[in-house]
Amino acid sequence: MTLTTQPALTERITIQPPAHRFERLCDWMETEDLDACVTFGPRHAAHLAGYSRYWGGPSAVVVARDGTRTLAVMHDEAPVATNLGNADIVVSYGERGFGINLEPLPLLAGVVAELPEVRGARRVGVADELGGMGALLRSGSDAQQVDATEATWRIRLVKDEDELVKLLHSYELCWIGHAAVAELAQPGVSEIELFSAALSAAQNAHGSPIEFTTDLLSGPKTADVCCPIHVASPRVVQAGEPVVADIALGAAGYWGDSAETHIAGQNAEVSELRSKLWEILADSVPLLRPGSTGAQIYQSVASQILDAFPGGEFPHHVGHALGVSGFEDPHLIPSDETPLENWMVLAVEPGIYFPGGVGARVENLFIVTPDGGVELRDAFGAR
């Protein structure tokens, strides 16, 4: 498969888009009477400034009350951040090179404290994914700090169209990885070769390094479900064995996730397991609408799985949201009562596992809409 270029949402998505995340953040700042909101960490940089870099240094995004966004990065990253991000202003801290100063966080806090919107502020929101940045910021700013963790978390739950485009890119990279596994999954190949083939195919298609977190299990090991119980190993696949690949990867700051059960040759039993799981996944699609909860969806899907496969086990979640990380709220688990909202993106991944036998799993990504889930590729006419 090839990556979708210039994707645009199709008529499959009829709901109006949400207020943009910057507007939602500024509305919250207005409610809290904040002069600025200061966010520390790479996920905030990806979410609010469109900036993500392989092995990037500590970063921050400062949003002024008027919506102006300033991205703070290490000195040598500034040219890259200016070209790749969408912040209004890019500032840098530190010196040329790397490994000289082993304590960069005080320098980051210092450059943020000197920004006009922070230096003269009465009240600022602070969301910190690096740890300890609030205290460091106080050493250079007298502004009262308001915890912005929950507000920024809630804003992330609902995706804007530009975020959907980035999610689609990573999701399609996952399926490029699956195509490589499907082609290579023949008797005599090892799990680590299949793992490496998926990584190589997806990474080459992206054109730069990606984050890659993938289960690759074969034969009886498929009943072990996932990492860390079993990780890709030198184990050689035998004729007719299942190969479960659950490929999750991050590219340009956003994550895709997918799972498929491949077969090294022919295996009627595994083919039947796989087909039934895809049916159960399809049955879950109407539930992916506003107001449904993760607990309700889990109960529906889990009961179908256990009814369809006597003697089997289903020891993991039905799915989860994703965005600037591969594992986000809400989760399709018994305890999550968070109501779904339009424009959330959820992975749904039913599976079945027979201890001492085999396992199977499938997974797709969906946008939550009033009419139920719309598969992410279908939303953009990408398949």
Quick overview:
The protein has 383 residues and is an alpha+beta fold.
Description:
- This protein folds into 2 domains: 21-157, Creatine Amidinohydrolase, Chain A, domain 1; 161-379, Creatine Amidinohydrolase (Alpha-Beta Complex), CATH 3.90.230.
- It has helices spanning 21-31, 42-49, 78-84, 105-113, 116-119, 133-138, 149-157, 161-184, 191-206, 268-284, 294-308, 376-379; strands spanning 36-40, 60-64, 69-74, 89-93, 123-128, 144-147, 211-218, 242-251, 254-263, 319-321, 328-332, 345-348, 351-353, 359-361, 364-367, 374-375.
- The protein has 383 residues and is of the alpha+beta class.
- The mean pLDDT is 97.
- Helix 8 (161-184) packs antiparallel against helix 9 and helix 10 (268-284) runs antiparallel to helix 11 (294-308).
Write the layout of secondary structure elements.
Blueprint: H1 21-31, E1 36-40, H2 42-49, E2 60-64, E3 69-74, H3 78-84, E4 89-93, H4 105-113, H5 116-119, E5 123-128, H6 133-138, E6 144-147, H7 149-157, H8 161-184, H9 191-206, E7 211-218, E8 242-251, E9 254-263, H10 268-284, H11 294-308, E10 319-321, E11 328-332, E12 345-348, E13 351-353, E14 359-361, E15 364-367, E16 374-375, H12 376-379
Parallel strand pairs: 1-5, 3-4, 5-6
Antiparallel strand pairs: 1-2, 2-3, 7-8, 8-9, 10-11, 10-12, 12-15, 13-14, 15-16
Helix pairs in contact: 1-7, 8-9, 10-11
